Fold this protein.
Amino acid sequence: MARPIDLCLAETVAADLGVPVDPHVERCVSAASGAIAAVCGRAFERATVTEYPPGYGRPYLLLSRPPLVEVSHVTEWGELLDATAYTIAGDLAADGLLYRLAGVWPETAHMRGLITLTVDGRQGYPGALAVTYTGGWVTPGQVALDAATGPVTLPAELEEAAILEACALYRGRGRDADVSGESLGDWSVSYRERTPGQRLASPRAELLVMPHIQRRAS
């Protein structure tokens, strides 16, 4: 069964593999989608969430689920901000940026999982900023579960990466994923070369997802 996180469909993967759709193929699709999300440090499926981002004393807030679709409300130190105080217009939404039109956001930062005042890291302030917004792309998995959420808006390279990774996971089950070839006569084995830092089973999938890796200040 499809899941909202699925970046491709089990039917597509099964067709590429030349096998019927079964629970194993479906697990490979979800595993591949989860692995890609982990490598990229972000969730891709569209959802409405509340985040508590650090402000760093700058006019921009970086939210974790681009592209931004709509900002429902923002609270600062528990007070609701007027919607005219910020914007996601233009290229801001695609990059996950919430821009404050006047002044800057509070001077807070991430420290050991908490939001802290940068001038005094001894006390946590998780409620310094709270942003409730809708963001992310509509995934093939979401459309498979509810056609009314369509059309799919996920970039084609992410869907293709998920297909490649799911196929690699399926083919690699029960054997060493680093072995690329074996023979029986005068036994020999050859090993697949991995690029430094490669985290996905498919090197082609790894290349496709690179533009979508989200790097953020700690």
Observations:
- Residues 47-135 form one domain.
- Residues 65 and 104 are 21 Å apart (CA to CA).
- The mean pLDDT is 88.
- The chain is about 30% helix and 25% strand.
